[in-house]
Give the backbone structure.
Amino acid sequence: QVRLVESGGGLVQAGGSLRLSCVASGLTFRSYNMGWFRQSPGKERDFVAGIPWTGGPKYYADSVKGRFTIFRDNGKNTVYLQMNSLKPEDTAIYYCATIIELAGRRGNSWGQGTQVTVSS
């Protein structure tokens, strides 16, 4: 059974940084594409960033390009999201997910989420 556990969320001022972590278990982590999604109140869950198992190009939503970086440590079964220059509009619950096809930007198995709040 796949289990994904996110951590690292919190309250930060605009312009600040946070690093989210997602520890995976119950799967061969190094063989999975991984991604981060986010959902704000009243909105749909949106793709934020994805990283392939192959070490190939990463994918980012236009709204976070140049500010967020996704990376992984296969030895620790962990995927990270480094978030810099945070804006109030980045406030959301952030979810980690496995992704079957990165180009489709759709999550398959999900974590429980971690809250990120950016104050102005």
